[in-house]
Amino acid sequence: MVKEIERKFLVSGDGWRDLVEADIRIRQFYLVAAPDRSIRVRISDGASAKLTLKFGSKARERDEFEYPILLADAEEMLAFAIGRVIEKTRHHVRHRGHLYEVDVFGGMLSGLVVAELETPQDVQGEMLPDWLGREVTGEHRFYNASLAVEGIPEIAA
């Protein structure tokens, strides 16, 4: 088990685009999506798949269990998905020694861009990149499980 400690931000500028180190095309869907737990299947670049279980209702910290699964099994589990399949491209961007994962959503969530910062220490405001917008950590409507079930939040549309 891993403790996932993350912050989420809406992205308000394009300054991150020139800093991209890598990108991953992701398709993911949920088998369970509740306020205190989720079970997700993620397919990366159409080549590999993982099953992820997350538990906890704290805004910044949850318990996470993640396991590789066969791609064929992941594709078969798609029949049991709740809500919509999330399509996004995840871009890895470094700023001041921290890795940000900038997710550019497609499909029904097109137009939404969210950055995640997973780090155990608190990064002060002046250390954050200027292309980050409003922090949405703890706002469950911006978590992927909620996006799959409820769609794009009104404020981000």
Describe this structure in words.
The structure is a single chain. This protein is mainly β and 157 residues long. The protein is built from two helices and nine strands, in the order βββββαββββα. It has helices at 71-77, 144-150; strands spanning 2-11, 20-34, 37-44, 48-55, 61-69, 82-95, 98-105, 113-118, 132-135. Strands 1-5-4-3-2-6-7-8 form an eight-stranded antiparallel β-barrel. It is globular and about 45 Å long. The model has no long low-confidence stretch (mean pLDDT 91).
Features:
157 residues; single chain; 9 strands; mainly beta; 9% helix; 2 helices; 8-stranded antiparallel beta barrel
Quick summary of this structure?
By secondary structure, this protein is mainly beta. It has two helices and nine strands; from the N terminus they run βββββαββββα. A hairpin with a 3-residue loop joins β3 and β4.
State the secondary-structure class.
mainly beta
Order of helices and strands: EEEEEHEEEEH
What is the residue-averaged pLDDT? 91
Count of discrete alpha- or pi-helical segments spanning 4 or more residues: 2
Map the helices and strands.
Blueprint: E1 2-11, E2 20-34, E3 37-44, E4 48-55, E5 61-69, H1 71-77, E6 82-95, E7 98-105, E8 113-118, E9 132-135, H2 144-150
Antiparallel strand pairs: 1-5, 1-8, 1-9, 2-3, 2-6, 3-4, 4-5, 6-7, 7-8
